[in-house]
Amino acid sequence: MNKLTVDGIGKRYVLGANAEERKPAGLMRRLAARLRRAGPGDESQQSREFWALRDVSFTVEPGTVLGVIGANGAGKTTLLKILARIITPTEGRVAGSGRVVSLLELGSGFDPDLSARENIFLNAAMLGVPRAVVARRFDQILEFAEVDKFVDTPLKHYSSGMYLRLAFSVAINMEPSILLADEILAVGDESFQERCLERVKLEAERGLTVLFVSHDMEAIVRVCNRTLWLNAGRIFGLGDSEEIVAEYQNSVWARGLTGAEKGRHANRFGVIHDVRIVTEDGREVRGMATSDMTYLRMRFELLENHLLACAAYDVRARGQLIFRTADPLGMRLFRNGGTWEALMRLPHRFFNEMTYSVVPSLTVAREGDGRRQYVLMGEPLSFIVYAPDGTERKEKDFRPSGYLTPQFRWRFQPVEDKPEGAKAIERF
Amino acid sequence: MSVFEGTVFERTNEAWVIEPQREGARARAVELWRYRRLLWFLAVRTVKDLYEGMSLGIFWLFARPLLPILVGGFVFGGLLGLPSDGVPYVLFFMTGFVSWSLFDRSLLFGTRCLDRHKGLIKRLYFPRLISPVAGVAPAAAYFVIYVVLMAVVASFYLWKDGVLYVQVGPTLLVAVLMAAFAVFCALSVVLFTCVFQARHKETRFGLRYFTQFWMYLTPVFYPISVVPPEHRWLIYINPMAPVVATFRWGILGVGEVPLVPLATSFAIAVVAMAAGIWFFTANEASTVDRL
């Protein structure tokens, strides 16, 4: 089976073309421009051009589940629509093989007046799938969608969950080579989402290539082997899902800073320079084994003498805040300004094998002016925690062990056979 | 997961490429064939959409064409007393009107096809050429209803005059061919107009204006025999005129079969169709972006 090759894809829209063209003035202008043979190269045109996608190139091996992430308007849907042939690219080339089935919008190929049975065949016709394939898979489609009892009910009486189940089931059973799924799984309940993701994984093992757009980072990390990060129509990152997701989330975080919390990187009291993972002997590292003992080092600069400061970290994984921790002493007094570093020891056998990101913060106050506190935020840092033998993470599914794997002290002791109540009565 | 274990996977391994320029005519034809079943679904859906939510749906289908026929028959046949080549004027008028309105309605319905199928086009890929072809389906539905009405009128005259004006025989096949050709002609124009319609919503109104005028140039109300032979070429310049005349001849056996004008319109329609397919294909991508 061939791989999917996307080579320099771009999609250009001309902003306001629609409205402009409809006005008589716009029409005349266009006609005049055409007569003058000005063509599309003229200046006013270029300034209104908008590239929804530009220079996007990547290859996907068969059997890969590729996550596609990015902020709204990053071009995720445009990319999927190009692959689904709904829109034609302005430049570039995509080469692939086999059947492409898309799940871009819920129920787009369904007719609400027809029953599920008729709709399954209608959908197949719309996807250009031979009737024989559908007939062969008919029972499986119904079974997976759990709508066997409602085969002959018109779809307008279906709940949105049933709609989704049917749509997904039809799509995955059309024997696609490439499945394009855009966010729609978010509609289903948890158990169905679970089953969908499982099924996607299973089909991927059989050579199905999936492009999965989602804002659910948890799901992305769980099912996607690789992740593509789009930003403003260009590729920002492509690689291991966990790393890309961590980077993406750090950037989302950083953007939040420049937006609502503008200028909080530094203020007149201090600035956080960086935060790093360092080993016992002071080497900076990007990752660590679960058995390693390392330090989180925050370097910051205090711009005045006699300041009170308290350092803290937010630790996140897969978009969740795992814990927040601060200097247990609270506000410390720094008699001298200048650059300081705070070392926080990270316990071993505490982090699970995944990518975490930490956001440093520093609360600063003037001595004797305790009520006015200023919070400084630093650039987030992401770090990878891997298995002690140095091998890469094998099991992506962290659910059996959770976000953290702390070690606790255990004690076992025999229990006297008489229950509490009986003892109390005896004592009485 | 035991359900899936037994299934044999038959993934097609056909390679494809997506590029700004679409693939050649042959590949597109193959693709069109692969999606042929969609044409029927889409056509049925287009007809159904027209009468959705109306409680008297099927009644309207019959009631709507009845009025223009009765009014037309009364005004032109009764009041103006136009000649009708020896058959009852209503029947004469109907044959002309049926074939003309098949063309006219195909044109108007087809022009709106991209608008009508917008929801689907923006969400799903299928060869876009299917949309205009399915778009003329309502016109075909009207045509069938007209034919039923025509049969009713013909049997009325059979009862009244004792004459079956309709020529039952192989000439009816000619009428069927002409009907198909009328749709073909309409489609060749639709391929242009539906693209315009997607950009300028007034296309349809302009078109309607134009076709009403066009109808009077076509021998719908009057027989070609009222025109002096030396001036008939003026009528036959209009490519639809021989189609309507031949359709009428096929049903009623009156008038003439203008072979040379018919061949000319056929040539014009084929050229227009080829140009239309080219135009539609060339503008497909930018039109879909604008929907």
Topology, element by element:
The complex is a heterodimer of chains A (428) and B (291).
Chain A: E1 4-14, H1 17-22, H2 24-35, H3 43-47, E2 49-60, E3 65-69, H4 76-83, E4 91-97, E5 100-103, H5 116-127, H6 131-145, H7 160-173, E6 178-182, H8 190-205, E7 209-213, H9 217-223, E8 226-231, E9 234-240, H10 241-259, E10 270-278, E11 284-285, E12 287-289, E13 294-302, E14 307-317, E15 320-326, E16 332-334, E17 338-346, E18 355-366, E19 373-377, E20 381-386, H11 420-427
Parallel strand pairs in A: 3-7, 3-8, 5-6, 6-7, 12-20
Antiparallel strand pairs in A: 1-2, 1-4, 8-9, 10-11, 10-13, 13-17, 14-15, 14-16, 14-18, 18-19, 18-20
Helix pairs in contact in A: 5-6, 6-7
Chain B: H1 2-5, E1 15-18, H2 25-34, H3 36-50, H4 57-79, H5 89-111, H6 113-116, H7 118-121, H8 130-135, H9 137-161, H10 171-199, H11 203-217, H12 232-236, H13 240-252, H14 259-290
Describe, in plain words, how this protein is organized in 3D.
- The complex is a heterodimer of chains A (428) and B (291).
- Chain A is α+β, with helices and mostly antiparallel strands and 428 residues long.
- Chain A is 29% helix and 32% strand.
- Chain A has helices spanning 17-22, 24-35, 43-47, 76-83, 116-127, 131-145, 160-173, 190-205, 217-223, 241-259, 420-427; strands at residues 4-14, 49-60, 65-69, 91-97, 100-103, 178-182, 209-213, 226-231, 234-240, 270-278, 284-285, 287-289, 294-302, 307-317, 320-326, 332-334, 338-346, 355-366, 373-377, 381-386.
- In chain A, strand 6, helix 8 (190-205) and strand 7 (209-213) form a beta-alpha-beta unit.
- In chain A, helix 5 packs across helix 6 (131-145) and helix 6 (131-145) packs across helix 7.
- Chain A is globular.
- The N and C termini of chain A lie far apart (80 Å).
- Chain B has 291 residues and is mainly α.
- Chain B has one domain (50-290).
- Chain B contains 14 helices and one strand.
- Chain B has helices spanning 2-5, 25-34, 36-50, 57-79, 89-111, 113-116, 118-121, 130-135, 137-161, 171-199, 203-217, 232-236, 240-252, 259-290; one strand spanning 15-18.
- The longest helix of chain B has 32 residues, at 259-290.
- Chain B is globular and about 65 Å long.
- The chains are: A alpha+beta (428), B mainly alpha (291).
- Strand 4 (91-97) of chain A pairs antiparallel with strand 1 of chain B, so a sheet runs across the interface.
